[in-house]
Write a structure and sequence with these properties.
Number of strands of chain A: 11
Radius of gyration of chain B: 14 Å
Number of helices of chain A: 0
Largest sheet of chain A: 7 strands, mixed
Helix content of chain A: under 10%
Oligomer: heterodimer
Order of helices and strands of chain A: EEEEEEEEEEE
Order of helices and strands of chain B: EEEEEEEEEEEE
Structural class of chain A: mainly beta
Number of strands of chain B: 12
Amino acid sequence: GAGVSQSPSNKVTEKGKDVELRCDPISGHTALYWYRQSLGQGLEFLIYFQGNSAPDKSGLPSDRFSAERTGGSVSTLTIQRTQQEDSAVYLCASSSVPGQGSEQYFGPGTRLTVT
Amino acid sequence: AQKVTQAQTEISVVEKEDVTLDCVYETRDTTYYLFWYKQPPSGELVFLIRRNSFDEQNEISGRYSWNFQKSTSSFNFTITASQVVDSAVYFCALSEVYSGGGADGLTFGKGTHLIIQP
């Protein structure tokens, strides 16, 4: 079946602009996760959705970051007023049984470059 | 707070050698899960294995094997008879069930870059 998909695959934006990153999880997976991968920080957990709600947003780096999920499926991660330190690969993952340590399946990521 | 340490940043071996990737973790939970993921040059993270904290049985899958030891908080990964296709970055990760602030978001180590030379 189809895996996790993310769009766009690459995004170049100017500092100060807003960007939206999209994640389409595996069909039927109720849990969705956003991570960020950068050279300096490695892989960082950002936010987790169970259905449409996000029980924990503490991983978001600043209030410029927000995420939503509608219909228990597609999620968007929005970064406002982008900064150069936001440059990274943003990864989305989904799992079928949240809270039970079930394996997370990752998408190919969106490479964000802020110039 | 949880933490995963992969002390080996890069390992280079010649094809057919055995290689072990180390992973040490810290957690205050008694119930947790450990994972290994592979990230080949293409970039997509590939799930390899999950182990819960109550199951210390070692696991073997083909040329891959995992050694989980709670006494030393380690979850090491061995590749036997390595092949060039095993070249990738390998990540160890931890998920806490009860006190994980990310409600089972994964805490990753920094990764080990494994290079298998022909």
